[in-house]
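User: Second chain of the day. Same drill as before.
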Amino acid sequence: MDIITTIKYMFLGLLQGVTEPIPVSSSGHLVIARELFGIEAKGLSFEIFLNTASLLAILFVYRNDIISIVQNLWRFLFNGARDNEAVTDFKYTICLIIATIPVGVAGLLLKDFIGENITVGFVGVMLLVTGIGLWFIKNKRGNKRDGDLTVKDSIIVGLAQCVALTPGISRSGAAIVGSIAVGLSQKNALRFAFLLYIPISVGTALISVGDIVNDPQMSTLWLAYLLAFIVTVIATYFAVKWLQNIMENGNLIIFVYYCFALGVFSILYQFIWA
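Assistant: Same format as last time:
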């Protein structure tokens, strides 16, 4: 392992950290970056490793929300509390569980096929799809709050996330599009999308521990992996904060333009320059 290789992997960590929270597909960016920089990383173990780093950052950002939900859920289930906060967070937790089921099942069924033989051109097409989805909801202003979510809403958001199993389709983008489409405000849609990320990411990490441990590159690139992990945690934290600000100001259009631009570039690269 040389310093150039280490820098490349750290760059991939930075790329993952910046693009995981924002609706532009982190997995798609990793496919493009590995192609452009010639980094050999077959399968999904490296992506999942970095995805776990992003999870830690998101857990930290939303730690107060998570603690509050857990406390209210405990009070509802074991202390018989039926105040507004306890009931709302109980319903909200049920909605999170329901929205997680479709993508969890799809991920298990397609685990051996996701991410294999994905080309830069294919990612480009999927980025255009992501951009189109964001375009349709960029100006939508819902008024639903956490307690207004229904089972139907949760199923719709869950199905939207299934599409994001394909590199180039943003998971956060799909969850945000689905959440805003069912009437959540942009702020609440963002919160729902990131809280949904937690069980999905935890589940993905657990079922992929073997793949990560048995990664043939881990023994020789462990330092590069570790540094990439640290960079991802830090970058994800600041990217989440940035996205929160963007959503509060209703500036989703910048991600529409970005997805279109990178999508067109990726397609041209595949068919003209590659």
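The chain is about 75% helix and 0% strand.

User: Great, on to the next one.
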